[in-house]
TrEMBL record:
Residues 273-282 have a biased composition (Basic and acidic residues). This is S-layer homology domain-containing protein. Residues 247-288 are annotated as: Disordered. It holds the Pfam family SLH.
Length: 550
């Protein structure tokens, strides 16, 4: 079913975005989305394997057309779209994928992003905020889309990643431009347009109009200008600019080049005359005041960020507005910046547990490890900056190395400040004086771990994914964090999960902390890597901080 969603989204986001969102046949999408919304996430997941091959290669498209013509797809198509889309139109939808020349595997990348819900790595807060505003506009037109996206965890980060496909089919040039508060067409690939028009030649919409790619792009511009609130347009344009979809030009009043008089791209004076995009405006502040300077906070410490002072009646957890990329918050204490452990990025900027009348610095996250440059980069950096995780050396993290049981226990104990060096434990393989002794003792005292039998903890052993799930859920439940357990059908290999871990696995899946592999398996006995552990612990951190807000 997600492949059906991917077909719809491909049409929405890549092939004919305006035509489906706001064009002639929007009633078709209404009907399809409403039908999809009737199913559960698990039911939608059931169609992934079936439809994926039909969109990722030209050979697959040919097979899809044969199946359509022979009636082999009739049952599935009827179940999903009913009578809202006829076979000739479906043929054109499948054929449209061949317009995306796939020498670089664009279609496979697209399918992977959606199937695995891969968020755009290191997406700035401004990008995510703009995408959320654009998604909200879509939701107003198609309420069923919000239900599907929410249930299937298609986040702003995932949608942003999908949008990165657009420049790849548009000769690496922005399709749109934004100036003086309005969107317009910037560049349309004639090669892609010709291929698209050939597929849709002869198609007549329900309103009696033909379809061309240029019309689709023109309609998209109309949609953005008419449906996106004026107050949100600059934010949406910034996000699309970051993704290479839109060229955000300076206002004609600001004079000269991208970035205006401030000098240099997005860092200059913006269209809304906001001098520093990382800082909140007065309207955005509530529990804090933005300071221009503070005694002892040097430019070196500030690092391009900004200073806030919380108010006397500040709540325990507050949301601070910022457009800083991957924001991090530090308390200024004793002449130093101390990382605020319980903080996570939020819709507006960053959600943090702070003190009343405290002084803090908000700035972008730093990335300490040269070898941590893959999908786990941001999780590793986030935990390192909060003092929860360390590298194998000062410069190397070894993200793909396995993590041991004691190493993982240390992360959990550090996250929740549970380490008590006075505690004792009598596991035969936990030597008093070893670096991990107090962490294992603290975890045992707090009923987080119980060992592997025969009075052994399992020191030095690689930790299994199901054991990580048990530890994670045990700690979260102890802190009052519970989620509705997912259905056992979410994992094809559910039956191979040990009984002691089954409920824990389903619980943290419900919290979004874990997911299955490409084949829908959890792989309970597989050993986790260091970056996988970082992602799970970061998921715990996010769940905990959000629970403090509630």
């Amino acid at each position: 079913m997600k492949r059906i969603i991917s077909i719809i989204l491909a049409v929405v986001l890549v092939i004919m975005p305006a035509g489906v969102i706001s064009g002639e046949d929007s009633g078709i999408l209404d009907s399809v989305l409403n039908k999809l919304a009737e199913y559960t996430t698990e039911q939608r997941d059931g169609y992934i394997s079936y439809f994926r091959p039909f969109i990722t290669t030209d050979t697959g498209v040919s097979a899809a057309l044969l199946n359509l013509d022979s009636g082999a797809m009739d049952g599935i198509i009827q179940e999903i779209v009913g009578d809202s889309v006829d076979k000739p139109t479906l043929r054109r939808v499948f054929q449209s994928f061949t317009c995306i020349k796939d020498e670089t595997g664009i279609r496979l990348t697209y399918a992977d992003i959606l199937q695995k819900k891969i968020e755009l790595e290191n997406a700035s807060n401004a990008t995510l905020k703009g995408m959320e505003k654009l998604m909200n506009v879509l939701y107003k037109r198609y309420p069923a889309a919000e239900k599907i996206f929410t249930e299937d965890r298609i986040t702003a980060g995932v949608v942003a990643n999908l949008f990165t496909i657009i420049p790849e089919i548009n000769e690496s040039k922005p399709m749109l431009k934004f100036k003086d508060g309005e969107f317009d067409v910037n560049f349309v690939s004639q090669t892609f347009a010709d291929d698209f028009d050939a597929v849709w030649d002869g198609y007549i919409s329900k309103t009696g109009k033909t379809v061309t790619y240029q019309q689709m792009v023109d309609t998209l511009v109309t949609f953005l200008n008419s449906k996106v609130p004026q107050s949100d347009k600059s934010s949406v344009a910034t996000a699309l600019d970051d993704l290479g979809v839109c060229k955000k030009e300076s206002s004609s009043q600001s004079g000269g080049g991208n970035g205006g008089t401030g000098g240099g791209g997005n860092g200059g004076t913006s269209d809304n005359n906001k001098p520093d995009d990382t800082k909140p405006t007065e309207e955005e502040t509530g529990n804090y005041t933005v300071l221009e300077s503070y005694d002892g906070i040097t430019d070196e410490l500030l690092g391009g960020g900004f200073i806030i002072k919380t108010k006397a009646d500040t709540a325990n957890v507050i949301e601070i507005s910022t457009q800083a990329q991957s924001p991090m918050i530090y308390e200024f204490s004793g002449g130093k910046l101390v990382p605020v452990k319980y903080s996570v990025p939020s819709e507006k900027g960053i959600l943090a547990q702070v003190k009343a009348d405290g002084v803090y610095v908000v700035k972008s996250l730093s990335y300490p490890f040269a070898d941590a440059n893959g999908w786990g980069k941001s999780f590793i950096a986030a935990l390192y900056n909060r003092g929860i995780i360390n590298g194998k050396s000062e410069t190397a993290f070894e993200p793909d190395a396995s993590i041991t049981r004691e190493e993982f226990v240390k992360l959990v104990v550090e996250l929740f400040d549970l380490n008590d060096t006075a505690l004792k434990v009598d596991f035969k393989d936990v030597a008093e004086g070893a670096w991990y002794y107090s962490y294992v003792a603290s975890a045992y005292e707090n009923n987080i771990v119980s060992g592997i039998g025969e009075n052994m903890f399992g020191t030095g052993q690689k930790i299994k994914r199901q054991d990580m799930a048990k530890i994670i859920n045990t700690v979260l439940e102890a802190n009052g964090i519970r989620a509705d357990k997912a259905s056992s059908s979410v994992f094809k290999d559910y039956g191979t999960i040990s009984d002691y871990a089954k409920d824990h696995v389903l619980a943290i899946y419900g919290l979004g902390i874990i997911s299955g592999d490409d084949n829908g398996n959890f792989n309970p006995n597989q050993f986790a890597t260091r970056q996988e552990a970082a992602k799970m612990v970061y998921g715990m951190l996010t769940a905990f901080v959000n629970s403090l807000k509630e």
